[in-house]
């Protein structure tokens, strides 16, 4: 299977970190099944340079070919919908693991607009590969939601709309899964700033995707990557 990670700052990761993509790579290796990670990008975000120019992953042994992705700091459904058709086509992606929406709701679009962009993303991905599979992670509200009630409400509403989109658009030919937010995910202990996952958060996010695929599709094994 050819996996493409799609996401925002939580997915691209920053210089000196691992990223949940690394944790997913570890898991896929552990299953012993053949796979490939694809994508047009490979860098981490460098906060000092304010650009995705770093290759300083926490584990230098993380293979270059496994670092590929389609993720960007400050990018959401709004930005990825226009890019996904070309990415799926050029990379011959078969499974999309998608974590998007927080940045949209925080800066660009309301819940209805964000949901519409998610639907557009799905449609464009299928134009490139009518049999593409997708696993979508609901928005995990960040620390802003604790003091900004309207933002928290928009996050909750978007997750309802995203679940509806998955129910409406899931097909046998191109199945879509809605992953579950890890029950134990705590923004105060699983992130380093109330938004971006630290090591424990990365493991839990990778586990959410892996568990969804294993339970629904029998793809890969049960998630068991230790911290």
Can you describe this structure?
This protein has 227 residues and is an alpha/beta fold. Helices cover 42% and strands 14% of the residues. It has 7 helices and 8 strands. The strands form 2 sheets. Strands 1, 2, 5, 6, 7 and 8 form a 6-stranded parallel beta sheet that branches. A two-stranded antiparallel sheet has the order 3-4. The protein is globular, with a radius of gyration of 16 Å. The two termini are 25 Å apart.
* Number of continuous helical runs: 7
Radius of gyration: 16 Å
Span between N and C termini? Answer: 25 Å
Order of helices and strands: EHHEEEEHEHHEHEH
> What overall geometry do the principal axes of the alpha carbons give?
globular
What class, by secondary structure content? alpha/beta
Oligomeric form? single chain
Count all strands and give the number. Answer: 8
Mean pLDDT: 96
The fraction of residues assigned to DSSP E strands is: 5-15%
Unreliable segments of 5+ consecutive residues:
none
* Major beta sheet summary: 6 strands, parallel
Organism: Streptomyces xantholiticus
Protein name: GDSL-type esterase/lipase family protein
Pfam families: Lipase_GDSL_2
Domain SGNH hydrolase-type esterase: 5-201
Descriptive keywords:
227 residues; alpha/beta; 6-stranded parallel β-sheet; two-stranded antiparallel ribbon; 7 helices; 42% helix; 14% strand; globular
Describe what is shown at a glance.
By secondary structure, the chain is an alpha/beta fold. It is built from seven helices and eight strands, in the order E-H-H-E-E-E-E-H-E-H-H-E-H-E-H.
